[in-house]
């Protein structure tokens, strides 16, 4: 059991802490939180970016302080969900919390933090181990501890849309690949190949419209604003090709664009 649990509630409350203070609170007792090392700092940034860009995520933050009750204030390395854009500590707990554990990690204090987050309403806590064999420990209320290893993926149903490869939480190339996937999906594309396909299709449509207009001009058929808009609004290549064929014999716009 963590030492603070052996004592009566401590005298401190979350409202007494200021943003930037190097402390969390557990049962009213201060927990010193020192700056992370270079490896942890890099991993935090990479993993946080992957999670924040997931298409289902609207709010996420790094080191956000959560205070489910006055004597508790916990700041996960990365919090997903329930991170409002307002000053002050956040009431409650994030749906998904990510902790990075490296050399010198106080495992007893880590377990205390995990327990308090889950008790406050967090649905998943992912602990990314940067020391020893790379792995992610998954904690969820009422479930046995799971360990997910490189080559496998993590899921958070109802919080994230996409599975997260374990490596994307600490490896730069894997993180960039997952982030790109997320950003493309936020713009309506499932993959980079889908973007290329959309570009090719847009080019083909633009060419077909230009050829149609040129042929109409050769036939001495002018277009008004509504007819121009109709051509621009047509996204079916077969329709544009049919209009082009009809233009070869048409005498009026109605005959060409029927």
Chart the SSEs and their pairings.
Layout: E1 23-26, E2 29-32, H1 38-52, E3 60-62, E4 66-67, E5 78-80, E6 90-91, E7 96-101, H2 107-120, E8 124-129, E9 135-139, E10 146-148, E11 153-154, E12 164-165, H3 172-186, H4 192-218, H5 225-233, H6 237-247, H7 253-256
Parallel strand pairs: 4-6, 7-8
Antiparallel strand pairs: 1-2, 3-5, 5-7, 8-9, 9-10, 11-12
Overview of this protein structure:
By secondary structure, the protein is of the alpha+beta class. It folds into two domains: 3-186, Alpha-Beta Complex (tt1808, chain A), CATH 3.90.1570; 192-256, no CATH class. The protein contains seven helices and twelve strands. The strands form four sheets. Strands 3-5-7-8-9-10 form a six-stranded mixed β-sheet, with helices on both faces. It has a two-stranded antiparallel sheet with strand order 1-2. α1 packs parallel to α3 (172-186) and α4 packs parallel to α6 (237-247). The protein is elongated, with a radius of gyration of 28 Å. The chain starts with 22 loop residues before the first strand and ends with a helix. The mean pLDDT is 90.
